Amino acid sequence: METVGALSEEEVIALIAGKLLSKTGIGEHLSHPDDARDVIPRAPKILFSMDAYTVNSLKLPWRGYSDVGWSALTGAISDIVAKGGVPHACMVALGIPPELDLKLLDEFISGMKEASEYYKVRVLGGDTNRSAEMWVAISVLGFTTARTPPSRRGLKPGDAIVVTGIYGPMGYVVKHGFEKALNEKWVVDFTKRPRAYLEVGYIIENYYKAVTASMDVSDGLGYTLQTMAILSSCGIAVRDPPQTPQQLVDLCRGGSDCLLEYALLGGEEYGVVFGVKPEWLRTVLRDLEHFNVPFTVIGEAVEAGEPGLYVNGRRFRAARYDQFREWA
């Protein structure tokens, strides 16, 4: 086994850069090994986000290192999409243990490269560091024509709550554990390489005056809904479950309460939750259908004495994975 520690820092950087970095575009002048890159703006407003993970936090028993690389970039991109942006480029920092097998590093970089090509997001550069545990930090640059990109707060009573994406498989993992989930092919298939829908960014960008608030779903659907409601000083009344795999529908025998139990748990689905003014709802849904984005109108924003998430008329307190306290 050849490890990262057998190479010099320059050799590790060359290995990563040769496989991952994008070429200089038209009108650009800086490239590797420059310490910065120049890009030509694609829209009047710039969006910028940062996500960081330990590789172990993204590692599932059925995810190889290439799947982790894919998932890391997908998660970073979803933040831009949720704000009505088109992700354009990113920078990647890696913390790498010297004893890491070079083959595993190569797999990780390959997965990230596959994701960058799938989403058409350029990788412009980054940094490497020695670390006791492997980690990755990704900053994403995006552009939007939306004059006022929607924040997490801004919901008003009467707004329809639209949820894009497929939910439930990761909730199954949380509820039943890795060992049982590993035996369910549908759970493995849906969680191995999560997908962000770039088309949602175009729709939010186009209808930014109609979208009152938005947030991506990285820490669980229940937590996302709860956060948006509290920040908006209102309630979110959930009446219908979001889209789920047919296997979960069969498991729950079509029961709405059962489906919601699984769907509100989980995380890393990387869909988007957004509020839409009632008079614009039909138009927004038409465009989601046009782009074949899975979605559900799960409920609406309501007046509430105690802001938060309400399911079947009762206050629902959502759990999430906390990086310091784990499940809380």
Task: Give an account of the 3D structure.
This protein has two domains: 4-144, 2-Layer Sandwich (60s Ribosomal Protein L30, Chain: A), CATH 3.30.1330.10; 160-327, Phosphoribosyl-aminoimidazole Synthetase, Chain A, domain 2 (Alpha-Beta Complex). The chain is globular, with a radius of gyration of 20 Å. It has 328 residues and is an alpha+beta fold. It has helices at 9-20, 55-58, 65-82, 102-119, 169-176, 178-182, 185-192, 198-206, 221-231, 246-251, 256-263, 281-290, and strands spanning 45-54, 86-96, 122-130, 135-144, 160-164, 211-216, 235-238, 272-276, 295-302, 308-311, 314-316, 321-322, 326-327. The longest helix has 18 residues, at 65-82.
Structure, briefly:
By secondary structure, the protein is an alpha+beta fold. It is built from 12 helices and 13 strands. It is 36% helix and 24% strand.
Which key features would you list for this structure?
single chain, about 325 residues, alpha+beta, 60s Ribosomal Protein L30, Chain: A, Phosphoribosyl-aminoimidazole Synthetase, Chain A, domain 2, 7-stranded mixed β-sheet, 4-stranded mixed β-sheet, 12 helices, 13 strands, globular
Q: According to CATH, what is the topology of the largest domain? A: Phosphoribosyl-aminoimidazole Synthetase, Chain A, domain 2
- Let me know the average pLDDT: 93
CATH superfamily of the largest domain: PurM-like C-terminal domain
Number of strands: 13
Number of helical elements: 12
Helix/sheet category = alpha+beta
What's the CATH class of the largest domain, please? Alpha Beta
Q: How many distinct folded domains?
A: 2
